[in-house]
Amino acid sequence: MPRFTLAKYILAALSTALTFTFSIAQYGDFGLPEQPADTASVDDIIYYGDYMDMSGGYNVNDTVYNFTVYDFDGNPVELYEELAGPKPVVLVSGSVSCIRFRNVFDPSIPGQEVWSAREFIYDHIDDFNWIFIYGVEAHPTDGNCPSNCPPTVNTDTAVVQPSVYAERRWAMHNWLESPIHDFPFTMYADNPDNALYNTFFQRPFGLIGLNCDGTVGIRADWVTNFFANTDNTDAMLEFRANYDVCTIDWQPEDEVTDEDETDDDEPIDYDGPDYALDGHSENEVASNVTEAAALDGLRVYPNPARTTLTVASDALDATWQLTDLHGRTVANWTQTERLSSLNVADLPRGQFVLIGRLEDGTTTHRRVILH
Predict the structure, then answer these.
(1) Rounded to an integer, what distance in angstroms lies between the CA atom of residue 193 and that of residue 196?
(2) How many other CB atoms are there within 10 angstroms of residue 359's CB atom?
(3) Where would a tag sit more exposed on the chain, N or C end, judged by fewer CB atoms within 10 A?
(4) To the nearest whole percent, how much of the chain has pLDDT over 90?
(5) How many CB atoms lie within 10 A of CB 338?
(6) CB under 8 A, 24+ apart: contacts of 227-230
(7) 78 domain residue, yes or no
(8) Is residue 13 domain-resident?
(9) pTM for this entry
């Protein structure tokens, strides 16, 4: 019996030590010491689950990583420093093409869900440390959507899934300039590796309320649905009332420098695209995109293209429109044969969106690069 009891104590001690080690190991850092260059490539989006699966990201009681991200002008915000403040940090993900996010900050949009979220956020601006993160686009016009969000045609934005940091930074900037939105916060751009969206959220309009020790105290899959429930608004107020101030005693490991730096790391001046939100009088609900069977075998090549862009499609009634990132049309034509070619030699180099439409209203989008 004594030997068995001793074994239990040893196992208990080992278990406690392992638990402590695991807890400490959860702290880490996604920080970047400087704002990324505009030319820095943005990583491809990963698989976030099946359609409408919003279960990804941190959950209640998880311990979150530190991060440093930057606003449009390069001003940083570091999470662990913010956690030491007097208010609970509330992180919210958003983008230009997330309809729910946009509608909350458009005072002209009615509806119980958006009104509930708008009222709570506006009424409690000073009660929480709100940090808004601009990350992955929910419904970009190039159709490069997250796996758990449906492709849509968004009638009042002209924004693609960012491929370089400049596109993300400038799209984020429009929340400060939008004539139809009231957005009284600073927005910070996710870094080029999408670390915050991939780790904290994995959903287009999620919310995370954090305790001062970096653990998740509140989680919302959809901000609009969350605040429409009075139990959740009561929980947020209780979370604020019971909030304790503390600091995280954690030091990052020494940074490993990469000697093989590329031009992506060199800052450049960039003045656009800077009006994805401007000049729109309506903020309509997105409509689902249905790809016709005739467009299933669509091929667009070569891509990237230099002199000629060819579209192969059995949809002989399709009309094609090539637009730049500002939404301006640079070419359009009707498909009369299975193969149609467009001379792009004289067009500016860069990224474009190819939009195809059938007579029945079916629409498809493809990203095209000219180099």
Answers:
(1) 8
(2) 9
(3) N
(4) 35
(5) 12
(6) 227/113, 227/116, 227/117, 227/119, 227/120, 227/121, 228/112, 228/113, 228/116, 228/117
(7) yes
(8) no
(9) 0.66
Q: Which domain holds residue 70?
A: 26-265
Which tokens is 349 given? 């180099």
Looking at residue 300, which CATH number applies to its domain?
2.60.40.1930
Residue 300 and residue 175 share a domain = no
User: Is 80 exceeded by the pLDDT of residue 32?
Assistant: yes
Furthest-apart CA atoms within the chain: distance in Å: 89
Question: What are the Cα distances from residue 131, in Å, to 6, 83, 89, 170, 222?
Answer: 50, 11, 7, 18, 16
**Sequence-ordered list of residues with C-beta below 8 angstroms from that of 70, at least 6 positions apart, any chain:** 35, 36, 76, 77, 188, 189
- 151-174 as b/e, with b when 16 or more CB fall inside 10 Å? bbbbebbbbbbbbbbbbbbbbbbb
Domain final residue pick, 232, 265, 298: 265
Instruction: Enumerate the H helices of the chain as residue ranges.
Output: 2-25, 79-83, 99-104, 112-123, 165-177, 195-196, 223-227, 230-241
Whole-number Cα distances in Å, 103 to 99, 263, 298, 345: 6, 38, 34, 40
CA nearest neighbour of 168 among 75, 265, 270? 270
Specify the pLDDT at position 61.
93
From the number of C-beta atoms within 10 Å of its C-beta (0-12, 13-18, 19+), residue 238 rates as exposed
What domain count does the chain have? Answer: 2
- Look at strands 76-78 and 187-189 and give their pairing: unpaired
In a domain, 137, yes or no: yes
Other CB atoms within 10 A of residue 301 CB: 11
Q: Could you tell me the strand order of the sheet in which 299-301 lies?
A: 299-301, 308-312, 339-343
Q: Hunting for tokens 């429109």 — which residue is that?
A: 321
CA angle 119/79/98 to nearest 5° reads 45
Question: Which one of 68-82, 158-172, 177-191, 327-341 scores highest in mean pLDDT?
Answer: 68-82
